[in-house]
Design a protein that fits this description.
Elements (H helix, E strand, L loop, with lengths): L3 H30 L2 H22 L2 H11 L5 H23 L1 H4 L8 H23 L3 H25 L6 H26 L1
Length: about 200
């Protein structure tokens, strides 16, 4: 008989793997559905957002996680308030700097709104994921990760396949945003109940 702990670890690894496989499948499907130029723009957008999420996070999460794990649950709300203040300050300073990718024409100007929407939603989802891991909720965190990185892809691809007018990057960015926001909402609900 398999232990509960083993099954939880298996589920955790499976969700993470499925998230990565989903991104891989998306790239192959987009190569079929979009133009090579759009694939290149998609790659630039995902790489720039991925890097920018790391920059905007400022590594403050490491401090917050240590504090959460070393303090009683009753003090978590106070720690999370300070993490929220730090995030807002980092946004005020670093979001304008991220706009330089458009000043230097590294990304097309038509993506500016999508860039900032996806950057903020991805950063919030990443921070909530890290909080859930620190709160000893790895399965919930992995479910959130799958919603953010995988589930929306399995909804998007049939839609793009059967509705050719939606075979464009804006459709991909919209679906990505929806997945990211669902992940954020789920994360906020769980964290709210934990605190």
């Amino acid at each position: 008989m398999l232990s509960q702990e083993f099954l939880q670890r298996l589920l955790n690894v499976s969700l993470r793997t499925l998230s990565l496989v989903s991104r891989f499948v998306l790239l192959f499907a987009l190569a079929y559905l979009l133009t090579p130029a759009d694939i290149g723009r998609y790659g630039l957008m995902t790489a720039t957002i991925g890097f920018s999420v790391l920059v905007i996070g400022g590594d403050f999460y490491a401090y917050s996680q240590r504090e959460l794990m070393s303090r009683p649950k009753e003090e978590w709300g106070f720690i999370l308030q300070h993490q929220g203040v730090a995030a807002v300050l980092l946004y005020v300073v670093l979001l304008p700097i991220n706009g330089l990718v458009f000043v230097f024409k590294l990304l097309p100007d038509c993506f500016i709104l999508w860039f900032f929407i996806l950057l903020v939603s991805e950063h919030l989802a990443q921070e909530l994921y890290r909080l859930l891991v620190a709160m000893q909720r790895p399965i919930t965190a992995s479910c959130m990760l799958f919603v953010r990185m995988g589930l929306w892809i399995w909804v998007l691809l049939p839609v793009m396949w059967f509705v050719p007018t939606l075979q464009k990057l804006e459709t991909v960015f919209f679906a990505w945003f929806i997945g990211s926001m669902f992940s954020c909402v789920a994360g906020v609900v769980v964290v709210w109940h934990e605190v």
